[in-house]
Amino acid sequence: MTKNYRILQDASPLFFEGNRIGILVSHGFTGTTQSMKPLGEAYAEKGYTVCVPRLKGHGTHYLDMEATTYADWVKSIEEGYHWLKERCDTIFVTGLSMGGTLTLYMAETYPDIKGIIPINAAVDIPMMADVAAQSEVRFLDAIGSDIKKPNVKELAYEKTPTKSIKQIVQLMKVVKEDLSKVTCPALIFVSKEDHVVPPNNSQLIYEHISSKEKELIELKNSFHVATLDNDQHIIIENTLQFINSIIEK
User: Fold this and answer.
1) pTM, whole model, 2 decimals?
2) What is d(CA 13, CA 42) in angstroms, rounded to the nearest whole number?
3) Which residues bind substrate (predicted)?
4) Could you point out which of 51, 59, 154, 183 has its C-alpha 20 to 30 Å from the C-alpha of 142?
């Protein structure tokens, strides 16, 4: 019998009702909506309709996460997409880390998506694949809160279930194989120094998506959780410009 864990403070899904342009925002593996809240609020302030789903098994307890699959995480992000579809004519998707992986998945699966903004997106992490293949340990130490800015902490699990690592490895494989299906405009952010996702993932994404309009922006002063780090304003400003440039066409 699975226990019902309470949602942690600051880990609930976020919804902002605005105009007919929607932005779907995804947090990452073991993380919560807290890591994406500043972006969601900034986009809502500009009048956009914003949805930041809580991925299933996240924002509660790592035992809860252990019982979920990558299909559950995909379903969580798809529910957010459908919430926006009811309210919006145009949808953009952005996400951090595995949220970036899910962003790519959405663009591969839903061709009506107008543009994507992956941030330190994961499609190939050999270290995780090795752990998934070999580990007999049930839980590993946390991977969250890789932030350069002092006194800023990401709300993330203190343990990572090995079962969950196996799931993200499968998700990355599925998404990587279908990168050529991404045809919408893409603005890709990559931290120069990232201790969770190797920065070459973003270059790989840039090279393999089929988008005619694509740009890769390097974040020089942030680690993995760039949405809470020193370059947060660069992400927000460039994303708003990117969205405006597409809407105005």
Assistant:
1) 0.97
2) 16
3) 29, 98
4) 51
- C-alpha span between 81 and 163 (Å, rounded): 27
d(CA 209, CA 181): 7
Binding residues for substrate: 29, 98
Active-site hit among 26, 76, 97, 164: 97
**8 A C-beta contact, residue 159 and residue 140:** yes
194 catalytic, yes or no? yes
Element (H, E) at 99: helix 98-109
Token representation of residue 60: 């509660």
The secondary element (H helix, E strand) that includes residue 150 is none
pLDDT in tens, the chain (249 residues): 457 899 999 999 999 999 999 999 999 999 999 999 999 999 999 999 999 999 999 999 999 999 999 999 999 999 999 999 999 999 999 999 999 999 999 999 999 999 999 999 999 999 998 888 887 899 998 878 999 999 999 999 999 999 999 999 999 999 999 999 999 999 999 999 999 999 999 999 999 999 999 999 999 999 999 999 999 999 999 999 999 999 998
Tokens of 26: 């995804």
Residues in the chain: 249
Q: Which of 76, 202, 224, 231 is catalytic?
A: 224
Q: Which of the residues 194, 211, 229, 231 is marked catalytic?
A: 194
97 is known as an active-site residue: yes
CA neighbor of 186 nearest in space, from 147, 209, 214, 166: 214
